[in-house]
Amino acid sequence: MNWWDIVLIQPTVNILIVFSNALFQNFGLAVIALTLIVNGLIYPFTLKQIHASKAMQELQPKLADLQKKFAKDRQKLAQEQMKLYRESGMSPAGCIIPMLIQMPVWIALYQAIIKLLAVTPEDFLGLARYLYSWPVVYSALPLQNHFLWFDLAAPDRFMILPVLVGGTMWVQQKMVTPPSMDPRQETQSRMMLWMMPLMFAFFTLQFPSGLALFWVISSIFRIALQYFSSGWGGLLPGRATKEIVKVKKE
Amino acid sequence: MRKLRIRPGKKSLLALVILVVGIFVFACAPGGTPAKGWSGAVVVDNNLYIGSMAGKLVGLNLADRTRLWNDLTLEAPRASTFGCAGPAQTVAIYGTPAVSGELIYMAGYNGKVYAVTAARGIIRWVYPREGTLGSPVVGGILVAGNNIYFGAANGKVYALDAATGDPAWPAPFATGQKIWSTPVSEGGTLFIGSFDKKLYAIDAATGKEKWAFETEGAIATTPVVYKNTVYFGSFDRSFYAVDTAAGKLAWRYPAEGEANVPGSWFWARPVVLNNTIYAGNLDGKVYVLDTATGKPVVAPLDLGNGISSNPVLVDSKLIIATGNGEIWAIDNNVKNRIQDLKDKVYAPLSASGEIIYVHSQNRTLSAVNTRTGVVLWNMTLNGK
C-alpha cells in the first residue's frame, strides 16, 4: 500500500465498517454518519471558502467597473484590481486554498465507499488488505448493501437518487451564484449553475447508490452551512439583486 | 517576464474545463474494478477448457495448442441509460468449468449457467432458459451423479439435471447471503459456505438442510472433505474442522487464546495430504495443520503475498500461486519458489501430469513444469 492508502483510505474504510456495525449493521447510515462527521471536521475550511466566495461576489460590481474604466490599459487594470483586493482584505486564492485542502478528504471518502461497496469479486478480494486486525472489522463483512429503497452497490433503478443529487446540487450552486447585472455574465453563470448538477445526476445513473447518498448528504450539509452563514444567497434573487444595487451605489 | 492574463470572457470557459477535468479525475480515481473473472482451467483427455477474461469459453488441444472450436462467447447484458442500449458487455467468468461425459458446464457473472458440448463447443442448454438468475454466479459448478450443483450471489444453491438443465429440486436452497464458493459432495451430502457466515450441509437428493455450522465471518472458501470431516476457512481468520454427520465442531485453529492468529481471510480451497491440511491465507502464509487435532505441524510457511488461488497437488507436492504471480512448491513442508510470473494470479490452478496451468489477470494462460519451474508456453486468451 502507498502512503495515500495508509494515511487516508485504510482508516476511512475501517471507520466505516465500525460505524456500520454500530449503526444496526446498516452501511447506508454509516455513510451518512461519516459524511456528516467529515463535513463537520472540515467545516472551518468550508466556512472560509463560503466567506471568501461571498466577499468575491460582493466585489464583482466594483471589479466590473474597473474593467470598464481601464479596458484599454491592462497593466493599470491589474494594479487597480490588486489594490481593491488589498483594501477589501481578501485574496482571490482565499476561495481556492480551502477547496484544495478539502479535495483529498473527499476523494478518500469516495474511494473508501467504493472499496467497501466492493461491487465485483476483484474489489472484494482487494478489500482484505485494507482491514485492521480488529475482530469487529472481520465479522462485519460483507456489509449490508440495502438501504431504504435502493441497493447501495447498484444505481438507483427508481431514478429518485439522480433527481435528489441533481436537485440538491442545483440548490447549493444557486445559493452561491449571485445574480449579475451583466447579461453575458448572467448567461455564463446560468450555464455553470446547470452543468455540475446535471453531470452528477448523470453519474448517479451509472454509479453505485452509496456514492449518490454521499453526494446528497454532502450537498444538504453545505446548503445548511451556506444558509446559516450567508442566508439563501442567489436562491432568492430579489433580495440578492437589491444587495448588488446597494453595493454598486456605495 | 510576460504575465499570463486570462480575459474575463474566457474565465468561465476555463472554469468549465477545470470542472469537467476535475469531475472526471474524481470519478475515475482508483476504486472500483471492473469484473474480469478468474476462471481456472480443467484438463480432460489432453484437452483444456477455460473461461477467458474476454467472456468466452475456450477449448484447447494441448498437443498443438490449437483451438478445438471457435471460442464461445457468453450472452452479455447491455448496459442501458434512458432506455438506450449501450455497448455489449463482456461477461466475467469466475468459476472453473466442470466436465462430465460429453458436456462442459460453466456459469457466468451474467447469472446464467451453460451446458456446452465438449466436441463442438455448441450450447446444449442454458439455465434459466429465459432471462437470468438476477444475480451473478461466482463459484464453480459441481457435477455429482446425474445433477449439477452451484451457488449464486443471490444466496441460493441450485440443483439441475445435468442432461437437460431442468431443476432437480422443488426449489433452490436459500441461505442468508451471497454464495461465492463451489459446493463439494460426499455421501449424498453437499457442503457449501455462504457469506451469511454459515457452512451448510444439504441433502443432495432433496435440497433440504441437514445442518448448518456458524462461524464469525463470511465463508468464500470451497471446503474439502476428508475422513468424515469437512475443512474450511472463514473471514473470521479461523480455520475449522466440522464433523460431516452432525455438523459438530471437531477443532478450530487458532484455538481459544492461541497465538499466531492468521493475519487475514481464508479464501483459497485447502488441500489435504498425508493427514495434514494446508490452508493458504490472504496474509501470504500457508497454515500446515494436523487433520485430527488442528495443531500446527510446522510453523506457517510465509510465501510473502496473499493466497486466493486454489492450490493443486502434483506428485505429492503442493503447488501454490500467490497473488503476485509467484509459484511455490511445498514438498515435505519445505517451500521452494519455482517460478515468478510477475502478474496477479487469483484463478485456481489446474494440473495434468507434472504441468500446471495458470490463468493470470493479464489474460495469459501459462503452462509451468512443476519439476523444473520452466514456463513451457504461454498464450493470451483474448478470444478468437
Can you give a write-up of this model?
With 250 residues, chain A is mostly helical. Chain A has one domain. Chain A has eleven helices and two strands. Chain A has a two-stranded antiparallel sheet. The termini of chain A are far apart. The mean pLDDT of chain A is 81. By secondary structure, chain B is mainly beta. Chain B is built from one helix and 35 strands. In chain B, the strands form nine sheets. In chain B, strands 1, 2, 3, 4 and 5 form a five-stranded antiparallel beta sheet that branches. In chain B, strands 8-9-10-11 form a four-stranded antiparallel beta sheet, with no helix packed on it. In chain B, strand 10 (113-117) and strand 11 (123-127) form a beta hairpin. Chain B is globular. Chain A binds chain B through residues 67, 74, 78, 106-107, 110-111, 114-115, 117, 119-123, 125-126, 128-129, 131, 133, 135, 138-139, 141-142, 184, 188-189, 191-192, 195-196, 199-200, 203, 205-208, and chain B through 3, 5, 8-9, 12, 15-16, 19-20, 23, 26-27, 29-36, 38, 81, 92, 94, 138, 177-178, 180, 195, 197, 216-218, 235-237, 261, 263-265, 267, 282, 306, 308, 346.
The share of residues in helices of chain B is under 10%
* Protein structure class of chain A: mainly alpha
Report how far the terminal alpha carbons of chain B are from each other.
Answer: 59 Å
Largest sheet of chain A: 2 strands, antiparallel
Q: How many strand units of chain B?
A: 35
Structure classification of chain B = mainly beta
Instruction: Give the CA-based shape of chain A.
Output: elongated
Mean pLDDT of chain A: 81
**Which runs of chain B of at least 5 residues are low in confidence (pLDDT < 50)?**
1-9, 27-31
Q: Please outline the major beta sheet of chain B.
A: 5 strands, antiparallel
SSE arrangement of chain A, N to C? HHHHHHHEEHHHH
In DSSP terms (H or I, runs of 4 or more residues), the helix count of chain B works out at 1
Say how many strands of chain A there are: 2
